[in-house]
Write a structure and sequence with these properties.
Helices cover 17% and strands 7% of the residues. It is of the alpha+beta class and 503 residues long. It folds into three domains: 2-165, no CATH class; 166-376, no CATH class; 387-503, no CATH class. The structure holds heme C (HEC) (7 copies).
Length: 503
């Protein structure tokens, strides 16, 4: 694996600028030790020291000092040039709106808002004796007061105690959610370290935690927004994903797993964060799929999203690149709803435009949803009952997931309204496409023609062939054997299928 310059959490904390004496961004300053409280200070110091010893500050390594002396260097070097570190600009480190646990436990009154101590346990400094570790018993990695997602849920639970923090807990209580509660003990310091440089999600190491997608020291408030002036940049990481690492695939041929991955530290595109777990980087099988036992939707295997969004594919949703910069074909603006209709062909999108909470009043992010596959809207490829397939005759039903963005307006009313016959070359004036509105197709399920996994396809317009494997070919229902993309209207000769006459 190629690896880009490595940054560690400790580098984020000190606001590194690659000069050894960025040490001068004193940790003591960053952690905002309460003035005059020497006992608390000493304990914050000695506890963090243990962590720093294990993680080693790059800045001090550059000075050629041993890790122990190196850590002292961080604290003892004069603060000739104090820089604002990533932490002090972060949502948690903000001195007025950041972390503050004192509404939960008055012991924390002693610490200023934004102080590390609202997450990292100070033990005896607060109570005079070591408090019993929280459940599960035993010390927590990185000395946080509660393990993993439980730490985050202490504040991100919608209660006043979390300050203005978002209610994420209720999302993880929804039926479909990233299974963060299934895993524990994966983020030990040694694994965090190897995780920064290796493939910590492979095989038995597969897991997911909040901190795989968020860096609690760097995240800032602010989720994605559609930039109409730079539509090609609508896949860049938003503030809440800042400081997280991911992987950028090196693509080979179409519909093949990437030939290599470059670790991006930090990730600059949202998909880079997702692909570190949802591609061959984590699967290591090379065949585009991976058996799982933790799928919230009950899948026995998941597929390779890097392969599916490969810009060399004949069609794809523009997550990695735009339609025009890759091999896909743009849609007509009339077939898209806002904001997607402003610049078709030149836009990208997020995985989290499709995967997220059904309730748009809840926080953004693919945390949980009441819809299968964590879909933001409706259902696919079946109706909400999970068995009845959506058909062209349902085109006006708002429960079709695709209608979140596609107009899919059509005037197919079962034969009468759309008056032409199989060799029609007319387009649908209401903005539909003439394959959808062809009356002979009226009762066809979407998956007769389209891939059930609508990420990308070997064939144009996300068409699935009868020869394609599951899950793309849904339960063997795909009927198309040959499809020729056409920028105008379709003629029956553009498509061969197993439906019988006349294709
Ligand atoms: C919002 C809670 C929170 C705050 C505030 C916070 N941390 Fe952390 N910190 C964490 C969590 C969670 C981890 C474990 C990260 C993981 O699981 O990947 C961690 C890990 C660490 C580590 C070890 C990580 C490594 O691999 O290098 C250090 C060192 C650290 N924190 C120091 C600090 C310091 C210093 C501050 C204040 C300047 C601070 N933290 C503020 C939650 C927090
Ligand atoms: C002690 C309380 C506390 C804990 C523990 C905590 N947070 Fe926060 N979090 C906050 C507060 C307060 C904000 C700032 C909200 C704002 O700026 O409006 C915040 C903001 C954030 C943001 C930025 C987006 C936003 O809503 O502003 C992210 C992302 C985030 N937290 C993730 C986490 C994760 C992941 C964990 C666990 C590793 C965690 N938090 C633990 C209190 C907490
Ligand atoms: C640290 C690893 C990790 C990261 C990063 C990650 N995921 Fe996941 N994701 C998982 C695991 C584990 C599951 C459970 C099923 C499995 O094992 O694949 C899952 C499940 C899902 C599912 C539901 C699949 C089902 O079975 O219904 C979706 C959708 C999903 N992830 C989307 C995303 C998106 C979008 C991102 C990026 C924003 C992302 N994931 C980042 C590990 C990860
Ligand atoms: C245009 C909407 C859309 C976008 C963009 C999208 N997804 Fe999906 N995704 C879906 C739908 C719909 C399904 C359900 C497919 C099915 O029925 O099997 C799905 C299924 C999944 C699954 C579970 C099934 C599987 O085969 O693995 C995962 C994991 C997943 N998506 C991750 C991602 C990731 C990661 C990204 C970005 C790199 C992404 N999705 C982008 C719509 C989308
Ligand atoms: C979150 C918005 C969103 C959702 C939901 C969505 N799409 Fe799309 N779709 C887009 C965008 C954006 C494009 C690219 C438009 C462009 O720039 O040309 C696109 C493109 C397409 C294309 C053309 C791809 C190509 O390369 O030829 C097809 C076919 C398509 N979508 C089908 C679907 C289907 C089927 C569903 C539901 C299962 C769906 N879409 C759900 C936003 C969405
Ligand atoms: C699979 C990756 C993933 C996991 C796991 C994950 N998040 Fe997120 N989170 C995201 C993404 C993606 C966004 C939204 C990005 C955007 O819209 O720009 C987000 C958004 C957020 C926000 C800001 C929401 C808003 O509307 O302002 C908070 C706070 C947050 N996450 C906290 C958490 C906490 C706490 C956990 C664990 C309990 C967690 N996340 C687990 C990917 C993840
Ligand atoms: C008989 C085959 C067939 C069936 C059945 C079918 N489609 Fe399509 N679909 C196509 C073809 C062909 C295109 C490409 C049209 C073009 O090039 O503009 C397409 C394009 C699309 C697009 C891209 C935007 C647009 O409106 O043209 C979406 C979204 C879409 N289909 C969704 C669906 C949904 C949802 C269903 C089921 C309700 C469905 N399709 C059923 C053949 C089919």
């Amino acid at each position: 694996m190629e690896s880009e310059s490595v940054t560690r959490i400790t580098d984020d904390l000190i606001g590194r600028d690659d000069k050894p004496c960025s040490c001068s961004a004193r940790i003591a300053e960053l952690i905002q030790l309460p003035a005059g409280d020497n006992k608390a200070s000493k304990n914050v110091f000695s506890r963090l020291l243990n962590i720093f010893q294990s993680t080693r500050s790059k800045a001090c390594r550059l000075l050629g000092l041993s890790s122990l002396v190196g850590v002292f260097c961080l604290f003892l070097l004069p603060a000739a040039k104090v820089q604002a570190g990533a932490y002090s600009s972060s949502a948690h480190g903000n001195s007025s709106t950041g972390v503050n646990r004192s509404t939960i436990d008055s012991k924390y009154d002693a610490f200023a808002t934004g102080n590390c101590a609202h997450c990292h346990e100070q033990h005896a400094s607060l109570e005079g004796s070591e408090p019993a570790p929280t459940s599960p018993p035993g010390p927590n990695a990185a000395m946080v007061f509660s393990p993993e997602e439980k730490l985050c849920f202490t504040c991100h639970n919608g209660s006043a105690a979390g300050g203005s923090s978002r209610d994420i807990l209720s999302q993880f209580n929804e039926t479909y959610r990233h299974p963060v509660s299934l895993y524990s003990g994966r983020h030990t310091l040694s694994k965090l370290e190897s995780g920064q440089n290796g493939a910590p999600f492979r095989g038995s190491l597969r897991h997911v935690e909040c901190t795989d997608c968020h860096n609690p020291h760097v995240a800032q408030p602010g989720t994605q927004s559609f930039d109409t002036n730079n539509p090609q940049n609508n896949n860049l990481v938003s503030n809440v994903l800042k400081g997280v690492w991911g992987v950028e695939p090196t693509f080979g041929t179409a519909w093949a797993v990437p030939t290599n991955f470059t670790e991006k530290k930090p990730a600059v595109k949202e998909y880079q964060v997702c692909l570190k777990c949802h591609s061959n980087y984590a699967f290591n099988t090379g065949n585009g799929s991976y058996s799982v036992s933790d799928s919230p939707s009950g899948l026995s295997s998941v597929t390779d999203q890097a392969m599916e969004f490969n810009p060399a594919n004949a069609s794809y949703h523009p997550v990695i690149t735009t339609a025009n910069l890759g091999n896909a074909n743009p849609l007509l603006a009339s077939r898209l709803g806002p904001p997607w209709n402003s610049n078709p062909g030149n836009q990208t999108m997020y995985c989290s435009d499709c995967h997220g909470d059904t309730d748009s009043n809840k926080p953004d992010g693919p945390h949980g949803s009441s819809n299968k596959y964590l879909l933001k809207w409706g259902s696919w490829p079946t109706q909400a009952d999970g068995t009845t397939l959506w058909k062209l005759s349902d085109l006006s039903n708002s429960g079709i997931f695709c209608k979140l963005c596609h107009t899919l307006s059509g005037s197919n009313t079962g034969g009468g309204n759309w008056g032409h016959f199989l060799w029609s070359s007319s387009t649908d004036s209401s903005g539909g496409n003439n394959v959808h509105t062809q009356s002979y197709h009226y009762n066809f399920p979407c998956v007769y023609c389209h891939s059930a996994v609508p990420h990308g396809s070997k064939h144009q317009r996300l068409i699935a062939y009868a020869s394609d494997p599951a899950p793309y070919n849904y339960n063997g229902q795909a009927k198309v054997t040959k499809f020729t993309f056409n920028t105008g209207s379709y003629y029956y000769g553009d498509c061969q299928a197993t439906c019988g006459w006349p294709h």
